[in-house]
Structure formats: structure tokens, C-alpha cells
Amino acid sequence: MMQESGTETKSNGSAIQNGSGGSNHLLECGGLREGRSNGETPAVDIGAADLAHAQQQQQQALQVARQLLLQQQQQQQVSGLKSPKRNDKQPALQVPVSVAMMTPQVITPQQMQQILQQQVLSPQQLQVLLQQQQALMLQQVIVLPPPPACLPQNPGQQQVATQQLAFQQQLLQMQQLQQQHLLSLQRQGLLTIQPGQPALPLQPLAQGMIPTELQQLWKEVTSAHTAEETTGNNHSSLDLTTTCVSSSAPSKTSLIMNPHASTNGQLSVHTPKRESLSHEEHPHSHPLYGHGVCKWPGCEAVCEDFQSFLKHLNSEHALDDRSTAQCRVQMQVVQQLELQLAKDKERLQAMMTHLHVKSTEPKAAPQPLNLVSSVTLSKSASEASPQSLPHTPTTPTAPLTPVTQGPSVITTTSMHTVGPIRRRYSDKYNVPISSADIAQNQEFYKNAEVRPPFTYASLIRQAILESPEKQLTLNEIYNWFTRMFAYFRRNAATWKGAIRTNLSLHKCFIRVEDEFGSFWTVDDEEFKRGRHIQRGRPRKYCPDENFDELVAHNPSLIKNMQSSHAYCTPLNAALQASMAENSIPLYTTASMGNPTLGNLASAIREELNGAMEHTNSNESDSSPGRSPMQAVHPVHVKEEPLDPEEAEGPLSLVTTANHSPDFDHDRDYEDEPVNEDME
DNA sequence: CCTCGCGTAAACACCA
DNA sequence: ATGGTGTTTACGCGAG
Questions:
Q1: Residue ranges of chain A that CATH labels 1.10.10.10
Q2: Which residue is nearest to nucleotide C8 (CA to C1')?
């Protein structure tokens, strides 16, 4: 019964979380490869499994390497350095756009070799490059069809084994080369690591660095020249490889890192993408120039204007040993920051995971929608419609992640305590919750008995808008509530009554009747206004009084049609806007989805005509068959005093203006020009 | 302190 | 008579 409706097929529930937008691209790009290497080699030879495992690690190393190189390129670029043969335009990459955005630049083998030949590589760089090469070879091996290892007589196995042997030999060579390099560096006193230490030596090296140490390091590195030559085993597939594997978090985080997160201008982390954009859009902005000061690490030279800055940049920070060394240091600094960020991200993730596991229903484990910190979550990633979700501090809309008595969800946007504490949107206007809001928390609220931090009106609206035809009966609204929120599976009388109250009270909810009964639609524009139905004079409810007499003396209690044109038009527009807002392409217009709604305008016009004939009619609109159109589509629109902006046109004659004086006390009627108060 | 929005409860009417 | 639906009001609470 509760699960009857099949309209809930939101797919963005968990796809968004964790910023795993790249996972799809991983499928597109490297998924084939990985699927073959991982998924379809069950219990095969250990070598292949190890390769696959090693591949993951190498991919990470690859990423670090790429970032290092990107940083260097970037620094070179902004420093006026020019790689001898560096292409201004990167070769066209056949990668998904989003991936390309995450990895705006890809190091070509030529570039790699150039960088290597520049002899300014740090041991870390060399190491990661070597690892990159290794990873490349791993990729090549893994790309090969997985050998059915359990078959001893497989003719292809021998070939694969030979290749693996050759590969391992190459690996060995590279490791030796790497170690030689590290040893040479050690001899120069630039590196203090154990020869066999596999991890990047950067971390212990760069940890706790202070500016003075950096300065010292600059001095040291400028005198350190190591003539390392790579074997030059370039591979044409490098571009693709490096691009395809780059979808993990560190890259993303580093790319989105706040450029202003610098300490006294010494550190500046820029995403290549952003930078290129800023360069294109703001020709006079420069990452190394700000507030009239050169931001080259350790420089801080005052430059009057941008031109002088450029001169200064070209003269003082030209391509020389000092500059390149400073680039190196800068890279190390950046990498250290990235490591730190990765650590903190990991810690954050663990914290959130831990807190989330405590949800009432472990199976649900609804990932905290926006758990991905605002730092890492790209706003562009399938963000909700902008109009529906102004993520302003004043409107704690979104995840509105409730933290309650039991289960809890945390977002970076807000950490609220909902539970008994009510949360609401802006008092000024309703901020509609987008489908993404609920959808992202859908699993959570479905299983956790947490009161959703949305108002009833918002939820009702959402329910209606989610429905295929943008209309729901009351019972369907009930069902939506119970289906979507575990919280509303209890105390039905309470919240059902609240729903009914809200439906009646809010202007935005329009009851429409047809021959089969009545259903509710929503006027989204009206919803955003957040107004309530304005009743007649404030009436003290006295059960002892004769209600009928009250009705007789309070015509506002009597529903009638009004403001048809002014009302139905925005209604349809609002419905369409709502649908566009909710990205529901299946139902382009309300009239298409719902013939009744499509006829709403004409029906109301007819109704208006009828009403004009009975200007003073005080009969209830519930009386059927007042007009032929009404008989077909008896549309009941809640009465509302005309607002000035809505009262344009001849429709105002529906309401006659003579209301009782005590309306003046009601703020809602200050601007209301008319309100019918007959007899 | 006041106002306002919201949730809740309740009374009541209407209808099937 | 009963239950569902719809309307209206009162009141408390929290936020601004």
C-alpha cells in the first residue's frame, strides 16, 4: 500500500555523493580495461592480481606525478618560462569533458622527457615519474586480455608470461635507476631516506617546513644538478593512460583548492583550469600578481601596475637556476599541502562514515549527500537547478541535513539539529526545495526516522511536482509522505491533519475537481511567495457560536472564483517552470500531462463569466453544476484577496470592495484593495 | 518584547 | 453512523 506509486525513480541519490562524478567517466574511459583486469580474472595467477593491485597504487602515483608536472608547467607558464618545445595547445584529447576538466593538461611523453632533461627534477619528481613509467607498463600489461591462468596449456599464456617477465625486468631496471638517483641525491646531502624506502620521500622531507627552511632549500637545490637521463621509453598511449586513470579524489581536491589559501602570498595553489580561465577572462589578472605585489615566492616586489609587474617577472624571474629551483620548492609545498588535504579529507570521510553508520537502519547507510565537503564538491556537478536552490546562508535549504536524536547526517553547509527543533526556510519567501534536496537525502529519510527539515508545504509541493501529472490526491500525498519519509509512518493523524491544514492554508495549493474526485496541484510561483490564504476578517473561533451564522456574515468563507486570468496564467507558467526546474523532461507542459489542467484556463474563464453574471452571488462553489464548464471541470480555487500586482484587469470586479474596518488591523489586508464583505 | 511562520490540535462541514 | 476530506481557528514555539 505504501509503496504503490512507482514514481520514485530518482537516480541521483547516491551518484552525487562523494563527488564521484568521475566514476562514470572511469567507466567510459578506463572501465573496460579495469573491468577486464579486475572483474574477470577470478582466482587467477597471483601475478595478474598483483599487477591489478599495483596498478591502483601506481595510478595514484601517476596522479601525483602529473600534478607535479602540471604545477611545474604552470609555474613555468606564469613565470614566463617556456619549455623549449612545449606545445601551446595540448593535443586533442579524447576524454570525457569532465575528466578533461579535472585534468586540464596532460603531460605528453615529449614533455615528460623535456622536463626530465631540464635536470631540475627533484628526487620526488623523478620517483613519481619512474612510477609513472612503471604504471604505464602495468597498464600495457593489463590491457592485454586476461589470461585464463588456470589453464596450463593455454598457448597465449606463455606469451603473457614472457611479457610479464620482460615487464618485470624493466621494472627492475627502473627501480635500480630510481635508486641510483636517490643514492646520488643522498650523497649530495639533499635527501635523507633509506635506499629501499618505497614511499615518496617528500613527506618527511617537506613536513614541518618553514619559510627559512624553504629558503635554505632553494639555495641548496640551485646547486644541485643531477644528470639523469631517462631511457626514453615513451609511449604513445601515455596521454590516454594518464587521462583515464585520473579520476580519484586527490586530483580533484587539488584542482579545486582555494587559490587564496595561501600564507602571506607565499603559497598559491591554482588550478590550471581556473588559471587559464582567469587569464582569458581577465587579461590583467595574474596569479603571481596581486595587490600591487609580485607574489613570486619570496619576492614580494612592489609593482605599480600590471605592465611593470610583467617586466619584473620577465627580468627577475626569468628562466634560470634560481627560478627553477623555486618552482621545485613550490611544487613541494603544493604537494605537501595536497597531502595534508588528502589526509584531512580522509579523516573527514572517516568521521562522517562513522557518524553515518550509526543510522537507525544500518543497511540504509544513506551516504550523507553533501558529505563531500564544499571544498571538494564541484558546484557544477549536476547541481540542482539554480533557481530552485539558492544556497544562501540564510536559507538552510539543501541537505538541511538533519541531525537528530538518533541518526545524524552532517554536511558542510550546515550542521543542524532538527528533531524537535523546527527548521524553516526564509521567512520572507519560501525557498522551494529542489528534487535534488530530497533526492540526495532520499535514502536517508526513507530509512531513518528523522523528521525532514522541510516544511509541510515544501514537502507537499515536492510530492505534487514529483508526480507525473503534477497533481495528487490527498491520499496520494499521504502515500508519498509515508513512502519517502520514515518519520511519517507514525502519528499519521498528526501529520495528515497538518497536510490537510497546509493544503487549505497555502495559496499555492489548488484543489481541482474532476468527475473522479479531487486532486491537488501546486502553483510554484505562489509557493515561492509563501503566502497563506487570506481569510476574511479575523475571526475568533468560538465553538459555541453558530458557525453557519458566521459564514453568513463572512463571505470570505465562501469560495468563489476570482482572478482567473491573473491566476491561471501564472499557474501554468509556474507549473512549467517547476517542471523545468525539476528536470523532468517527460512532461513538458502541464496541459500535455494533464488534460484537466490544460483546460484549467478555459474552465476558469468560463467560471469567471459565470461569476460575472452573479457578481453578488454568495453561493458556495461547491454547489455543482453552476455552469456547464464547471460541471465538466469544477475547479475550486481558494479565495484570496487580490494583491495589487495581481489585481490588474477587469477581474477585480469579482470582488467588491467594502470590507469591514477592522481589517486594518490585519497586516495582510493593508495592501489589499478589495475584499468582499457583502451584507 | 514583538512579529511572523510553522506545526499541532481541534472543531466543524460536507460527502460517500 | 462512520470515515475521509476540506476549512478554519487557536495556540505554542522558535527565529528574526
A1: 455-669
A2: A541
Q: Are A459 and A481 in contact (CB under 8 A)?
A: yes
**Cα distance between residue A575 and residue A593, in whole Å:** 11
Q: Taking a C-beta distance cutoff of 8 angstroms, is the pair A234, A253 a contact?
A: no
Q: pLDDT digit string (tens) for A145-185?
A: 333 333 333 434 444 444 444 545 554 555 554 455 444 44
CA-based angle A173:A177:A178, to the nearest 5? Answer: 115
Residue count (chain A):
679
| CA A531/CA A505 separation, integer angstroms | 9
Q: Which residues contact A652 (CB under 8 A, 6 or more apart)?
A: A563, A642, A673, A674
Nucleotide nearest to A548 (CA to C1'): B13
What is chain A's percent helix, strand, coil content, to nearest 5?
Answer: 50, 5, 45
Cβ contact A535 with chain C strand, < 7 A: yes
Q: Give nucleotides in strand B with any atom < 7 A to a protein C-beta.
A: 3-15
Among protein residues, the one whose C-alpha sits closest to the C1' atom of B14 is A622
Q: Could you tell me the distance in Å between the CA of residue A425 and the C1' of nucleotide C12?
A: 19
Question: pLDDT at position A114, please?
Answer: 46
Nucleotide nearest A530, CA–C1', reads B5
Q: Which amino acid is at A552?
A: A
| Residue numbers in A 575-634, CB below 7 Å of strand B | 622
- Bridge partner list, A509: A522
Residue A464: CB less than 7 A from any atom in strand B: no
Structure confidence at residue A170 (pLDDT):
53
More confident residue, A220 or A342: A342
* Percent of all residues in chain A with a pLDDT value above 90, rounded to a whole number: 1
Nearest to A582 by CA among A655, A527, A645: A527
Cell of A402: 538533519
What value, to the nearest 5°, has the Cα angle with vertex A512 and ends A510 and A514? 175
**Residue written as grid cell 474526485:** A517
List Cα–Cα distances, A649 to A567, A613, A643, in angstroms: 12, 17, 12
Q: A455-669 domain in CATH 3.40.50.1820?
A: no
* CB-CB contact of A76 with A114 (8 Å): no
Q: Which triple of cell numbers denotes residue A326? A: 623555486
CA of A345 to C1' of C14 (A): 35
Shortest-distance nucleotide from A477 CA to C1': C5
What is the predicted pLDDT for the residue at A285? 72
Distance A598 CA to C1 C1' (A): 40
Residues 6+ apart with CB under 8 A from A592: A598
Q: Name the nt closest to A519 by C-alpha to C1'.
A: C5
Reported confidence tier of residue A499, pLDDT bands at 50, 70, 90 = very high
Average pLDDT, chain A: 48
Could you report the per-residue pLDDT of A259-283, keeping only the tens digit for each? 333 333 333 333 333 333 334 345 5
Nucleic acid strand B within 7 Å of A427 CB: yes
Quick: pLDDT tens for A209-267: 444 444 454 444 434 433 333 333 333 333 333 333 333 333 333 323 333 333 333 33
Q: Each residue of A609-618: b (16+ CB within 10 Å) or e?
A: ebbeeeeeee
The three-state secondary structure class of A71 is helix
Nucleotides of C under 7 A from a protein CB: 4-10, 13-16
Q: Is the pLDDT of residue A516 over 60?
A: yes
Q: Which range has highest mean pLDDT (A208-222, A564-578, A648-662)?
A: A208-222
CA distance A134 to A571: 62
Q: SS3 of A289, please?
A: strand
Q: From the CA of A629, how many Å to the C1' of C10?
A: 38
